[in-house]
User: Fold these one by one.
Assistant:
Number 1:
Amino acid sequence: MKNEDKKPVQDEVLNEIPVACTDETAAVEFMEKQRWGEHPACPHCGGMKVSKMTDGNGGRNKRFLWRCHDGGEQFTVRIGTVFEDSRIPLKIWCHAFWRACASKKGVSALQISRECRISYKTALFLMHRIRFAMTEIRGDGKLRGIVEADETYVGGKPRGGINQIHIDHRRGRGTKKTPVFAMVERDGDVRARVVPNVTAQTLGKIMPRHIHPSARIMTDNYRSYIPIGKHFASHDVVRHNIGEYVRGDVYSNTAESFFAILKRGLYGTFHAVSKKHLHRYIHEFEFRWNTRHANDGERIAEAIKGADGKRLRYYQPTAKSA
């Protein structure tokens, strides 16, 4: 998007969304505008010959239906999005999108529950759907230039007790915490993934999938990275084991900055995130990092566009792990 186009998008969205968060008709029209712009289309057949259905008095149909004159189908802006089949008013969806996009460290389902006066269970599923909408936005191209790769471990601090001697107090590699692996392009995007382990075999499959062969790789001196570097133009190592953290332009501080924001959000905003749902929160922080140069209005618009073509049914995030 050109710089001269950014301010109108920001002003338009930020002017409209406060009203959309309080009025259902305004919310529907706001979502329609963000999804379709000036050219509404049937989500069933893609037909452009569509019209709004009225209530007989010239106003909108109470269900905000559209009719497709190509296929004869009726539809709403919800069809084919993460909020399809949701009974939650769209004004609450607008509020949740706004809060999730404007809060650097995210917003908890408990906070949305209080602000929108809905149950915690409803708010949690709502936020999971929004995180799903944020998945893989700006995440389809390979990282280039200088790319930093690093991992961190997510989980609570070890608790004390009578048998403290038997508690594993290690915080990094070798713990039972969940590893999160990130690849960050300097001044560019991040790709972050929950991984089963940080072996050369696991990382060796992930990195070539997300990083262009011409990239210059920066890692610490962990042994798993050594055989992976040969797949790229060059591989520079910063030796943390001897207290070296920067050597010229060789460092992994950008990746560590992403992890710092991630952990502040997970521990400060969400407090406790299960391993089962961790990947959804990772997608949310990845989205905000990749849109960090955008303003709130652009970020909201991009997140709502990301809801198109995605479905997350209730049983998926609530199903018990095998």
Note: The chain has ten helices and eight strands.
Number 2:
Amino acid sequence: MKRRVLVIEDEAGMRGFLRDVLAGEGMDVEEAADGDQGLRMAQARSYDLVLTDLRMPGLSGIALVRALHSLPDAPELVVLTAYGTVADAVEAMKVGAFDFLEKPVSGPDQVRVVARNAIERRALLEENERLRRFTGSKPPDLVAMDPKMKAVLERVARVAPTDATVLILGESGVGKEVIAREIHRRRFREGDRPFLAINCAALSESLLESELFGHEKGAFTGAAVRKVGLVEAASDGTLFLDEIGEMPPGLQAKLLRVLETREFQRVGGVKTLHTSARFVAATNRDLAEAVRQRRFREDLYYRLNVFPITVPPLRERPLDIVALATHFTAVLARDLRRGEMQLSEDAQRAIRAYPWPGNARELRNAIERAVILAADPMIRAEDLGLPLPQPEEKVTDGLLAQRERETILQVLAEVGGNRRLAAERLGISVRTLQYRLREYGLTER
């Protein structure tokens, strides 16, 4: 991702010099001529790095550093200080600056080194935060409010502690890899075991074979060194075989041997190797029909189909739709540096009314576009590009509304009527819950 940098400097020549050096590093550089303007810009949007002079008209340098450091998504701060005023830079570092540059700057390399160090520190902090949030917790895109999805997770909980091969079935975009990762997470809770994935439909047969089983040096033109394949590298972890129904027949036979004996050979090799990988496969095809049409090996099908898990399409788990959309909104608004964003009521109605043939993947893409297009923090139906339901299309009609109403009543009963706790369990805001209660005539409960 291209890093966004703000240069705050009242001297036009110095400001242009810093802009050119940082832009040459591939950074997206914006400029401000004084501290007041710079602070307004930093309050309006997020920056990865701010370089600011400490001596400018208007807002003082130390006050500016304090204000920038206190922002919700505070940038890394590098201050520029005149010769002989290093004490000012030290004071700035005490209140939040990462480093300083002393004027006159010796040259572009000095700026590059300090900027790179600051960006690397920010990247490290972001990765640590991501790991802190997700280590030991469910995968970030796993939302299961609907009874059908909760039933899927019950099956996951049963099979995860075992080494059984799992076959995940479902339409494209339903989240089959998310389920595979949840199986891995529950099986290897210490988090240091590999989870490796490959799309069997994305590679030619020869390349897929090399990726799976590896090859020896000189096995074919271009094989300059020995390559360890995924079957070997995933030992003591999980190998996820996505789109297994597209695997060529020749490789199906080799995969069958691995599942039966745990043995394999690298391409061009004669040594028999062993693997302890746990295999999880997924497909959006009807493998039983493919077996009948002799397009998929029957013996491999039965080896894979030890423990099948079918992930229902999004249209069949309506209680997950808005919960997933809300989750995607929070994640993507953060990733795209748009601050906190919410779905308006008309956007939620449009989301619930749309059939989502592309499932969760299509929903995520729609939310990403909306986060980018929305003019303010409230996403509306027009931002999503979805048709707004007509007034007569009441959401209280039909199975969807009936199931949602029953679930809300059940959760409210479980928490003794506490709306805040109920909203947390349902994965929606209290405001959305109150709207649903009014919509279903439950406001007196």
Note: The radius of gyration is 27 Å.
Number 3:
Amino acid sequence: MNRITQRMNALKAANKKAFVAYIVSGDPRPSVTLPAMHKLVEKGVDIIELGIPFSDPMAEGKVIQLGHERALDHNVSLTNTIALVKQFREQDQDTPVVLMGYANPIERKGYSLFADEAAAAGVDGVLTVDLPPEEAVNLNVELKRVGLENIFLLAPTTTAARMKDIVSLASGFIYYVSLKGVTGAGHLDLESVKAKLKAIRKITDLPLCVGFGIKDGESAKAVSEHGDGAVVGSIFVDRMGTLIDASDAEIVDAIGELAGNVRAGLDSD
């Protein structure tokens, strides 16, 4: 059984919400990412989403775009990121890791080679932001061949018919985008989130994790009331940027403090 499914099942049995944390590989410099991953786990993160640096991250707001730019300044690539996961697995064999990115780097490597390398390194799932279900069939075949989960986004504007098409390919969990726009933008409409999650549950048994617009433990708690977990990213990437001139240890500790606050919020009564 894939680590994502194992973790989600364990959280459900413990009546806990999943804490999914997103950071960009190589941001603000490559030496920070590995210790930051371990710190996130130490502070209660259940699943790590590792962003693959890309020159045109179209779904991201300014904060995460800048994170991609900082990583690209250090020439961090998909290959580097897969190698980083392999390093992470030397100490952590349990925490699920999802690679989140855009289709171009994966297509350039080739679906089969990408799937083989990712699986060998210890990756558990892939979320390709700009690959619609109509174009994801071949990648899906390769991911399934090596036991990796193919995670998809659903948005407030996704129609009922299209939701069915997407969930027919999805595995691991569904990432529900809680608001219209890019990462880090807008204000959460909890009633809208609740209604959409209810509709999604009618067509899939996959866990539902909610992201976009989550700023702290309080907002993470609020969205997770109606889902199975919260995806938090912009606050970590923003802190990386503000501390770019700090030491690696100072950056990692700051990220850990943020994660601890979100975990406390998720677990609060």
Note: Strands lie at 18-24, 47-51, 97-101, 125-128, 149-154, 174-177, 208-211, 229-232.
